[in-house]
Amino acid sequence: DSGVTQTPKHLITATGQRVTLRCSPRSGDLSVYWYQQSLDQGLQFLIQYYNGEERAKGNILERFSAQQFPDLHSELNLSSLELGDSALYFCASSVARDSLYGYTFGSGTRLTVV
Amino acid sequence: ILNVEQSPQSLHVQEGDSTNFTCSFPSSNFYALHWYRWETAKSPEALFVMTLNGDEKKKGRISATLNTKEGYSYLYIKGSQPEDSATYLCASPRVVSNYQLIWGAGTKLIIKP
Lengths: 114, 113
What we know:
The complex is a heterodimer. Chain A is mainly beta. Chain A has strands at about 5, 10-15, 20-25, 30-35, 45-50, 55, 65-70, 75-80, 85-95, 105, 110-114. By secondary structure, chain B is mostly beta strands. Helix content of chain B is about 0%, strand content about 50%. In chain B, the strands form two sheets. In chain B, strands 2, 4, 5, 9, 10 and 11 form a six-stranded mixed β-sheet that branches. In chain B, strands 1-3-8-7-6 form a five-stranded antiparallel β-sheet, with no helix packed on it. In chain B, β9 (about 85-95) and β10 form a beta hairpin. Chain B starts with a strand and ends with a strand. The chains are: A mainly beta, B mainly beta. The interface between A and B is medium-sized, with 22 and 23 residues.
């Protein structure tokens, strides 16, 4: 157990639907990062939150949004889902804001859009 | 170089042999260099974060060195074991990306028993 909790582990949904992925960071970590890993692709950075505020955005689609709550857990909302959104979504946390310390990754949520 | 590059892309090593692979990164405005191990069906696991030129870090049979002036880092595995089979990723945060990690494509290491 890395200390980063992601739920659910698996999710199957239909095109056009909306889903919410949840991440609880490791205790003491203030930064939460969301990554997408599509089939045979590397880690694609989506978005970072630090202590409740958006810190940086990567290649995140407009149909996707995220937030970090006062208790530091984060949710990634994916809407109007398309087949191409099927992927493994990782959450990672870190104590710092600027990637000066290692990331702790959760076990991921595998999303399948049918 | 503008991106983080890793070589080789894949590597087959006999059990018991030692091996090493390379991560190249932009040397200008260097901030930090991360190494991760990513086993199949698991999530990436942090190995090292290095910040100082000439730094060397060690974790069991795995060690890493850093040359920030020329922009490269080596990862060494001594006496490879089957459990070392994984993809090894390096990444470097960049100022231009607001300190987000720029990831290499990884070196896939396969240990042959």
